[in-house]
Structures are given as C-alpha cells and as structure tokens.
C-alpha cells in the first residue's frame, strides 16, 4: 500500500510541476501583426508532431493492447505519458509565432484530469489489492477512460488546428461547431460501423439488436437536438430552414428505423437518411465556387455511402440472427472432419465468391463515411477562403482530403487487425484455449476438433444418396 501512495504522490507532484510550467508561459490577449505572422519555430513543430503521434497513434494502439490484455499495454502507455508530458512543456516553451488564448490551451489543462486518473488507476490495478471490492470497479473505470483517449485526442488535435490558423472566432464559431461536430460524427459512425462489420459480429448477436436499431436511435436523438438548436431569433435564413428540416428528417426517419428494426430485423432506413442528407448538402448554396464544389463532392460521397450501405444490407451482410438451439440434428460437437457439403452457416463460413465479395465490399461504406466527414470538416468558410487565396483548385483540395481519408481508414483497419491478433486474441492463445477445452467451442466457430452433422430433416435429394455406406443388397 505504501508503494501505491508513493507513486500517487509522485504523479501528483509531476502534474503540479507541469501546471506551474504552463502558468509561467505568457498568454497574449492582443497580438501585434509581427507576433501573429512570425514563423513557427522548431520547438513548436516538435510539439505539434510529437503530440499528434502520441494522441493520434500511440494511445489508440495502447488502448487496443489494453483491451486484448497484451503485455505491451503498460510499457506503451507509459512511454505515451512521458512523451505527452514532454510535448506539453514544449508547447509552452516555443518562441516565434504567438497565439491568443484558445480552447486548445484550456483543454490541454483539462486533459490532466483523465491523465492523472488513468495513471492512478493503472498503478492501483498493478497492486492487485481489494480484489473483491474496489478492484472490479477500478477495472471498469480504467477501461472507460482508456477508450475515451482516442476521442479526447481527436478533439484536442482539432482544437490545435483551429488555434494554429486562428479560425472559429467571433461570428465564425457557429459554423465551425456545425462542421466539426457533424464531420467528426460521420468519422465516429464509420469507425463504429467498421468495428461491427469486421470485429463485432459476435457482440451484435449477443445484443439481440440489429445494427440499424442502434443507428436509428442515434439518428433520432441527433435529429431532436438538431431541430431545436439550428435557429435562434425571429428571422429565418435559408440555411436555418435547411438545417432545421434536416433535424426533423433525422428524428422522423430514425423513429421509423427503430420500429422496423424490432425483433432483430435489418432495414435500409438509416442508409436512406444518409442519402437524403447527402443530397441536401450537395445543394447547399455557397459564396465561393470552391466551397460549392467541395460541398457538392461531400454530398455525393455521403450519397454513395448510403447506396453502398443499402447494397451491403440487402446482398452481403448476414442477418445477425441468434443461433438456433442445439439438438441432436444440429450438434456442434460431433467428431468429424469439416465437410464443405454440410455448412450450416454458409453466409459466414463459406469460402464462396459471395463471401469473398462481402469481405471486400463491407469496407466501402465506412471508408466513404470517413471521407465525407473529412470533407465536411474542411469545408468551413475560413478554411476554403484560405485555400482559394493560395491558388489551390477544388480538385487538388478534395484529393488531399481523400488521401487523408485513406490514411485514417488504414489506421482504423490496422487497429482492428491488432485487436484480432494480439494479447488474448492471439492465435497461440486461442489455440491453447481450444485445446484445453475442446467441448466448449462456441457455436458458429469451426474448431479443428469438430464439425456439424447435417440436419436430416432438411436434407436435399441431391445429398441423400451420399450417406449410403457399402453396396445395396440385391433383391431376390
């Protein structure tokens, strides 16, 4: 116990020292033209690159390793904490260009709360005390905080980009909030969709709810909020009307989607809502032609994501129905070699062309949603005005966003691959578990020891004759 308190005190002292360093950094309520346009020095560039690497790459990898109980989780997160502390100091030690007080600096101080809490919980869990009382709750809290790190990191990196360019001040704040929140929501939706399609099918089956049930609830709740937050005052502009009716569209369509998704049924209502939203966004009137082009491509990308989702639901994705109860005719535990003639779950385990097409096609909707989210985030008036003044056309700008989308989605898929191949999900650990308990192989997973026997009640005429062993007896 004394070791725990000693480590906790060291963490507290370290946090206080960093806060004192931050308070010693001068803040500028007003900037001269020289301070505003001074070149960015190397210290600030190191701060930007270091914090982006830690919060954008290192901490998400550490989060996945923590979920899989990998032995590399603690070393990686420890390195991340040390690097982010160094990056914090660098951010308050730079010269050259100066910045007004911003949400980026304020949020950096707020981040000390989850950092200190996560460190404290990590040290406490390493002590393996209070196993039956406090520790189970500490494990839950540690997991929740760890899973929040990618969201916190993404938010802080967006704040950093805004601070670097001096965007989203004054009258531009409302537009920035709309673009950054909704664009980030599309990327989050894409991430959740990828998790469900690539690694979360078992969870969906256990929940007894189809993915569209969850989608529809989120869309409906978001629509309710959007309906009452897009207009203030007595004068209605065209954009106010468009944004408000989009909110009504979302909660009305979400309500229908929830009803149709009852009893674990699939439906295309969320995809239709995405298509209609994309069409509305593509018709948004803009001041600059560059902005009009970017908004149009954003809308088309969103529409394409919706159409891809419909195709996926109707032709590729399994039904996520709960497995049937075991009986003598559908046993998972019959000793036999796996036979391709008796696949009880052809939509999942079959190596047919349709299964291969499904595995390839299911990446398209989440990738398009990532691209759409990035396009919307980057379509604010201030950002596009800067692009226009620097002589960049819409083709180059849009391709930059799609290139970034490829990188982000590659990292998402890499994290899902890491989840499937590390820690307790590593092939060696799974094989050892199956060898130790071959009778408890989960239904739907084909172990090397067992394969199903066919259901004789559903046996086809084509396969009935294949069960005859030996020669038929000749009739007298």
UniProtKB/TrEMBL annotation:
Annotated region (Disordered), positions in chain: 329-349
InterPro entries: DUF2427, YTP1_C
UniProt KW Membrane keyword: yes
Stretch forming the signal peptide: 1-24
Keyword Lyase: no
Keywords from the named record: Membrane, Signal, Transmembrane, Transmembrane helix
Top-rank taxon, per record: Eukaryota
Pfam families hit by this protein: DUF2427, Ytp1
Start and end residues of each Protein YTP1-like C-terminal domain: 153-419
Transmembrane segments: 43-67, 74-91, 103-125, 137-157, 177-200, 212-229, 241-261, 268-291, 297-317, 360-377, 397-419
Basic and acidic residues: compositionally biased ranges: 330-340
Domain DUF2427 intervals: 28-128
PANTHER family reported for this sequence: INTEGRAL MEMBRANE PROTEIN (AFU_ORTHOLOGUE AFUA_6G12730)-RELATED (PTHR31685), PROTEIN YTP1 (PTHR31685:SF2)
The protein's name: Protein YTP1
